[in-house]
Amino acid sequence: MQKWVVSAKRADFQKIAEEFHIDPVIARLIRNRDVIGEDSIREYLTAGIESLNSPWLLKDMERAVNILMEKISQGSHIRIIGDYDIDGVTSTYILKTGFRKLGAAADVKIPDRITDGYGINEHLVEQAAADGVDTIVTCDNGIAAIDQIARARELGMTVVVTDHHEIPYDEAEDGSRMYRLPPADAVINPKQSDCPYPFKGICGAVVAFKLMQALYERAGFAAREIYDEFLEFAAIATVGDIMDLKGENRVIVKEGLKRLHHTKNPGLLELIRVHNMEPENIRAYHIGFVLGPCLNASGRLDTAVRALSLLEAQNCEDAARLAGDLKSLNESRKEMTVQGTEEAFRVIEESGLQNDSVLVVFLPDCHESLAGIIAGRVRERYHKPAIVLTRTAEGVKGSGRSIESYSMYEELCRCREYLTKFGGHPMAAGMSLAEKDVEAFRRKLNACSTLTEEDFTEKIVIDVPMPISYIRRDFIEQLELLQPFGKGNEKPVFAQKNIRLLGCRIFGKNRNVVKMQAMDENGYAVDAVYFGDADAFTDAIKGRESLSVLYYPTINRYQGRENIQITIQSFQ
After folding, report:
1. Are 95 and 196 within one domain?
2. What CA–CA distances, in Å, run from 198 to 169, 375, 450, 486?
3. Are residues 424 and 497 in the same domain?
């Protein structure tokens, strides 16, 4: 069930339009994204590389650079310990490639999802010591590895943590929090309360990028080199790890996409080509739903080393082979996800779990790497926080996906007595626990929940109720000023009442495209398309005199011809 509401944020849209030479509707869209004031609007429309924050603003950056430059000059053995998702792989690539250019004796260990679990663990610490490692640098992990890093220090190793996850804390009875940091030699994480970095929402790869930027500056490299080498990877991670595309993140993705359009990286080129796309056409959408899942698939079903190898490939032949492998892995992942999702829905419906505020689903036979994806599908269907747990050799592991009104990480902190390990964000988290505690964990989460029925109703915010007759080519071109779209900078939603949909035709081998005409009550018509279950769509609109539709306007280009069309996103 959807609840449609119209954004009612106010400003002098005509004045903004005149000041910045944009359509008043574009001005309204910018205001709807909470961009207020001339300076902020100008930055939103025009900000580039020069607006990125200095890496030296990050707490412990100076200390980390001093340590690492000394270690590099001494030829010390540096080991990068990353993570197996898209953020961890790109972080690892940035650090390894940058360290090598600086002349460091650096190697990599990406934990195996099944045998090692998330992040640095005691086994990896002991292995590093046995291998003669002098310094460990973590990326996209380490902030919660207090005991493991203490062990590394006991063994005489230097440790630099680079991470972006929430800082662990203990909560007292009065609700106050005592934050706990690992005993590393340097901890770079903007989430630290005393870190002066002005933008807290960067991903792990951007933290790694900032570290490498500072090291390059200290080594005397030109600023352009760090941007040309690594910005596209920081952009891929920002989108793939579902960071808010606001402020600095939006600039990183916008500028990173420009470089991706002309990438010289053989791995990225072949991954794009294996999907029958061209680099210059890649948008944030393609990272999130086409390329990113392939980079994630290797860490889910095989080893993330394969994804790292793709990014490091030196020739087209190796890159093409690895890209094909990742695409195949992702196809397998999709099939397994469908099966696991159907099983999750069955368990929920048959057991009555749908009445819970927080859905905790135990799927013993589910591949543990798919738990997060399936949790996301469960959340989409029920619009409730969802956690999917599965049985592993070390006990039960799981992943959760949340809704805006529920901070999953904070709620897990209230149930820490049942968890052997956990971490994450307000919107997503991972956890481990004993199988005997699954039911108690579910009950405690729900007992602590303060969610209401209103929280469970999907709310779609309409940016502008706009007649389809208003759409012009120059207006569609101005919409490009708002790109890239994603979480925190969502694609605009337009709406119109009393629309008739005429001449529906179904296309696609999976019957997932409907082409038609949309006509308003004054007889103005425009081409329209719907993507999804075409048969269900045509059945739902059959015999209806008129509909209210949510849509987005585009220019359809086909065989040298161009015409305006709308993509219908939803209807009532």
Report:
1. yes
2. 22, 32, 31, 21
3. no
